[in-house]
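quick one, 243 residues, struct below
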Amino acid sequence: MKILIVDDEPLARKRLERMLEEIGDCVVVGEAGNGSDALRRSSELNPDIVLLDIRMPEMDGIETAKQLARLANPPAIVFVTAFSDHALSAFEAHAVDYLVKPIRKERLQQALAKAHTLNRAQLATLAKEDAAPTGRSHLSVTVRGNMELIPIDHVFYFQADQKYVRVRSARGEALIEDSLKQLEDEFPARFIRIHRNALVAVAHIAGLEKDNLGRCYLKLRDSDERLEISRRLLPDVRRHLKN
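---
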């Protein structure tokens, strides 16, 4: 079993590594100190199991688990944390097990055995069933071969682009495989559909304007771009902005 250890405390990572050496039948392929690194390392190393802390800077373990579940080859997640009050959220993120520090070797062995019984296909199925009712806080994208995270708050709009969806944010542009419908369902209060091929972040809308031909466009607060609103959706957009 290939294992990735994710914890913001170096000593905690070393303790887990020593315990895993005693258990045997597994190899630690890497370590990460935060959620962003965990995603990058998982994409590179393709671990079978991720031992994941919950309270970490930048992106916590619950959100990291949701992002890991969306990988093409998702690993099994075992949370290893000093706090017992996140168990429900952990299992909603499809964790295989939840261990509270200090960890006993026997308990860790049980968790690894449980994780080992789930194959990749089963983990991928669980990921598809994850409705993520509160929505992700970040999008994971690949830019020039590197995995990056884009905070949802930084996204200006999503626009359909052939087989993909283009994400326009404060950081530039990237492509994702989510459909506009999936994004619309995941973020119903944060994005509004203005065209069959575009969703716009409500927080970044500056106003409406009309050209000489009577076509309506959305102006964005943090961008010079204007996005055309379809005539069919214009009444919905006006109502939404009034509210």
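The mean pLDDT is 86.
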